[in-house]
Amino acid sequence: MELANQLILLGSALLLLSILAGTLSSRIGAPLLLVFLGLGMLAGEDGLGIQYDNFQGAYLIGSLALAIILFDGGLRTPIRSIRLVWGPASVLATLGVVLTAAITGGAAIYLLDLDPIAGLLTGAIVASTDAAAVFLLLHQRGMELRRRLGATLEVESGVNDPMAIFLTITLVELVAGTGGDMTFTVLHGFLLQLGLGALIGIAGGFLLAILVNRLDLAPGLYPVFVIAAACAVFGGTQVIGGSGFLAVYLAGIVAGNRRLRANQLIRRFHDGMAWISQIVMFLILGLLVTPSTMVDDILPGTIIALVLIFVARPVATFLCLIPFNFSRAEKLFISWVGLRGAVPIFLAIIPILGGMENGMQYFNITFIVVLLSLLLQGWTVPWVARRLDLELPPVQEAEGRVDLDLSAQIDRDLIGYRLTETSPGANRPFRQIQLPPRVRLIVVLRDGSVVPKYKIEALHPGDYVLLLCPPEQVLAADKLFSSRSKRAGREVRLGDFVFDGAKKMGVLADEYDLPVSRQQRDLTVGQLLTDLLPNSPNVGDRVAIGSVELVIRDIREEEIAEVGLVLEPEHPHLLPPGALGRAGALFSRLRRRPVVMDGNDMPLGPKAGLWERLRRRASKS
Amino acid sequence: MEIMDLITPTAVIANMRVTSKKQALQELARRASDLTGLEERQIFDVLLERERLGTTGVGNGIAIPHGKLPQLDRLYGIFAKLEKPVDFDSIDEQPVDLMFLLLAPESAGADHLKALARVSRLLRDRNICGKLRGCDSADAIYALLTETQASHAA
Fold it and tell me: Is the CB of A487 inside 8 Å of chain B's CB atoms?
């Protein structure tokens, strides 16, 4: 009895502490997951002394948490994003994972003197990016990325776990040496994982949506029903040998893109559940490690982490994205956001559960890799995004918005805003405010009383505005009524001057002497950009015309609505200008054959390594 | 291209009194007419035409109205600080109180773009805009506008 009470107190205290620490950490920009992980470690054996080494239990909790996080991520992924990025994301999630695993594994074999299978296993364990970390990081602090870029990273992290899990399990089985015709089993197993995962996930998503809309439940039960169904999809797929992770993510995408009854309720609930899952999962993983036993593994772990971060992931990313038309800056960014998180740690439990003799070592090395990835990459992602000039101006989203779900039969929601000084709709003549199509103003409340519509001359800060709004116009309404978040740091701008996308290109070309052809002059600015862009246009996409650039600022109803003119296009660079050139010059100087001056200096053969050249240079000076 | 090449001390207005976007452009056109000898009406029409293409209110209370006139011999700039901000249909919906007018000859081409870029870069600096808003005399404003480029060039 006493123990149960103590456990409840302890667990809730840890949870509370995590939330509070999380709030503090966002001030110094530390990645939240790192904070949770750190708290777990602090509470663990080397800190407060909580003994926890139940790997079986951690595996169970980790699976569950990951399933919930993936489902929630799926719910929030609009189908449009999937259409936009399924190509690059799926190549990254399959070939990319194999390449990353192979390169990291190769380095482990070569540098750490591991036997081939152990090395490859190490590579496979750390090969997938972490959905929890990527989702959280990309949405934290209102960082806005070009849609194609952000969506690629998210979808990749959502669907690449099966590949890594599959590689890991296969290699563990290889080590265990069950024998038989391996190539057949491997391929068969892989197809089974993917095929069953995709099939059950998509079917499950549809079924879930139908059931939610058909069943008459107490409102509070809808989200519970959904989460139970999601877990059932996960568990069921796993039991019959498919990839539950893929299934639950796909089920989330399918369900999230259908109209659901109690939509808001479900989303809110899942948002909370995803948070709990993230906190609990990382706390548990932090509790699970014992830093004092990791000392021996710090060096190899660091080497693997560095190879992974600086070689394997970038090489894999650049190779996989060759056919997809990403800019160099975008490829660099995707390489850098190869965040490792719970999945690798979780995969590293498999060798332990599989009873491998060096099981603990895999776990420790993986833990160090994850820790370094969160520290090094997680902490710097916003900085890198700014540096590479990939950020978009913040969209005002939901700041001060209240939603009311009316009914599944009515396709409009009731939404309300409290205007602030910074809401674009405030302090403007009411006549000038153009509500988006199908949006109806219901009432304006000022100082606690209703203002009759004919009496409204302007909306003031402090007014409450209630609207009837179809879901697809909610963002447009946000643009008018929610407050603009003032963000510290450099402003992100999309061009010096702004033009309507429907203006004729000829007029613009005359004004600024832009070099465009006769045919191009007859197009609208939007049409020209659509023609010139290799992919479907997205906010933030740029096209160079002569010495200036045109950048897409806004897209409404699939049309380019607003375009910015960038007078001085900047070329983003991570390193200070010239640094790369200097490094290159140094490198080529090292490669050059030393000139024979006194006859004693033997000319180096073409095969002499870099090390040999360095040594000779050092001894000469 | 530096600010000093675009603007003279006489082309700075410290406290312009206008109540609307149209009036502001009109007043600037009048000043530009004094400066260039061209007809006020013609300048105003060019500016209005440009505003129809898209607002030159670039946000943060700044507007950079501009246009091309065939008869000009060189680039002309005028800076005006408004006594009271006016609504300018700016991209951020904020009223405008700092204006930099830029007129270019028809043949200016690349120079026109460079000058616009230079002005835009200058007024993107919140620090400078804050100081400009605190200035009361045209001389002080001119000094601020032109001093900055020394630090830029350094």
Answer: no
